[in-house]
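Give me the fold.
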Amino acid sequence: MNASESSCCGCTGDTKRAEHDPAYRRALWIVVLLNLGFGLIEIVGGFFADSQALKADALDFVGDGTISLFGLIALGWVPRARARIALAQGIFLGALGLGVIGFAVWRAMNAVAPEAELMGGLGIVALIVNVSAALVLSRFKEGDANVRAIWLFSRNDAVANIAVIGAAALVAWTGKAWPDLAVAGVIALLFLHSAWEIIRGARTELREVA
């Protein structure tokens, strides 16, 4: 990655520190367990609450946990393999974003207001889980594309959870489904933005090691 790209995304750093630091491996395991565990809980809650935003957020949790696990496995790999893993992470996140947008559009044709109290409660718990994961990873947010991918996922989760809580409040106030669908769309856009950043960084690193 050249200097201009590094300054643009604010993600330069010492890759070797993350690759060989046992504390980083422990942090990744914590993030994997938090994301996969709560993701399964939230997706069930999303169906009970009939909330597209919760379902989108749950997909984000499960995706983050899976991708963090791949990041953990890839820590000892050569730079080319790590960049390829990051590229796959970006493509996967982009596919999630497109899928959420498509489902939200379809759902808008048969919109039903979700259960606001359950939606808000799960949003608050999700925010606590994501802030915990982000704090665990905060000292490792600098590094190569693979390290940045994991950090971006955790950061975006916390932002998305705040949006889910706000949408629950609006649903309770208006009795309408549009805040839930709008936040599902916002989460999808976060997916697509991060996917672009990750894919761009991974492709740059692949060119550098070619």
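Helices lie at 3-9, 15-20, 22-49, 52-74, 79-108, 116-137, 145-174, 178-209.
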